[in-house]
Amino acid sequence: MNDWQKKSPLDWETYLNKLVKVIAVEKLQYEGWVLTVDPVSASIVLATFPENEKASISFIMGHAVQEVEILREGDSHMKQRLARIFAPEESQAYSPEELEKRKNALKTWLETNHIPVAEQGELGRTLCVAGVLTIDPPYGPEQCSSSNEIILSRVQGLVQGYLEKQH
Amino acid sequence: MTDPLPVPVPILRLPRGPDSSGGRGFCRDSRGNSQHFPELQAARAALRERFLRLLSSARGRPARFWLWSGISVDAVFGAADAEPVAFQVDSLRTPLGVQGAALLRCGDVLAFSFPL
């Protein structure tokens, strides 16, 4: 384990949203904004926004990191830009009102079928089914998420069937 | 009649009880950290969640992997396992041709990147 890997997660957290230069083995160098550091492997994930080119994401494996130098703090504009990378893909096809309608329709249908469902999250945009599965907008089978494979597959099937009946 | 003489019972020597500092055998250092433990765990969880989301955003994207000895290869990112220990990739371009699917060991990969 190198020094970087031995750091505490609280230490790694201090690098978030900062512009850093990572010096890795074999003279590899990476410069970018820290999106996260994996606490399991100490891998650093950087975002770079070169001019006139597409933004890119780089993963530098923890075992390859030799030195990390902080170059700059991120301002609020940069923090927003980085946060957008994490936001689950907003579906272009639906307006906020349509998403709200879809959510309420699905919620009602689940309740009618005696499946416990609640809204969660800051904006109430996520549906939580039986406390073990979540459904994000736009509330299709692909947006279902659960650590229980059986429940996941059952609910995906139900949502799929429900959506097919709508058309 | 008088009561029969009580039979002497051997006295067991029990192991020493916990010391007065209340350590109960736990390492002293970890008790010091326990004050920070909830923050530590929250930081760990937040960092890991971000990492997993970023890994899932890599799925299906063409990426370049830097290996040892200055070698780099292009492939389409497939998946990573828990630690990660290995990366599964599709269409790995090697000097011998394109490999349909392959596993790259994490220890062999120094870094990889893909455009958004």
In a few lines, what is going on in this structure?
The complex is a heterodimer of chains A (167) and B (116). With 167 residues, chain A is of the alpha+beta class.
Describe the structure.
Chain A is built from 5 helices and 9 strands; from the N terminus they run H-H-E-E-E-E-E-H-H-E-E-E-E-H. With 167 residues, chain A is an alpha+beta fold. Chain A has 2 domains: 3-85, SH3 type barrels (Roll); 96-166. Chain A has a 5-stranded antiparallel beta sheet. A 4-stranded antiparallel beta sheet of chain A has the order 6-7-8-9, covered by helices on one side. In chain A, a hairpin with a 6-residue loop joins strand 2 (29-37) and strand 3 (44-48). The longest helix of chain A is centred in the C-terminal third of the chain and has 18 residues, at 149-166. The termini of chain A are far apart. Chain B has a domain at 59-115: SH3 type barrels. Chain B has helices at 28-33, 37-58; strands spanning 62-67, 72-80, 86-94, 97-105, 109-115. In chain B, strand 1 (62-67) and strand 2 (72-80) form a beta hairpin. Chain B is elongated, with a radius of gyration of 30 Å. The model of chain B has no long low-confidence stretch (mean pLDDT 85). Chains A and B meet through helix 2, strand 2 and strand 4 of A and helix 2 and strand 5 of B. Strand 4 of chain A pairs antiparallel with strand 5 of chain B, so a sheet runs across the interface. Chain A: It is found in: Cytoplasm; Nucleus, Gem; Nucleus, Nucleoplasm.
CATH topology (level 3) name of the largest domain in chain A: SH3 type barrels
Unreliable segments of 5+ consecutive residues of chain A: none
**String of helices and strands of chain A:** HHEEEEEHHEEEEH
Query: How many extended strands of chain A?
Result: 9
Give a quick account of the main beta sheet of chain B: strands, pairing sense, barrel closure: 5 strands, antiparallel
Amino- and carboxy-terminal Cα gap of chain B:
99 Å
Which class of secondary structure composition applies to the elements of chain B? Answer: alpha+beta
Main interface by residue count: A-B, 32 and 31 residues
What is the topology, as strand order, of the major beta sheet of chain B? 4-3-2-1-5
Q: What is the end-to-end distance of chain A? A: 56 Å
Helix content of chain B: 10-25%
Broad CATH class of the domain at 59-115 in chain B: Mainly Beta
Which term fits the overall shape of chain A? elongated
The overall pLDDT of chain A, averaged over residues, is 90
> So, CATH architecture of the largest domain in chain A?
Roll
What is the number of independent domains of chain A?
2
CATH topology of the domain at 59-115 in chain B: SH3 type barrels
Protein name (chain B): GEMI7 protein
Pfam family, one (chain B): Gemin7
Domain SUZ-C (chain B): 1-30
Region (Disordered) (chain B): 1-34
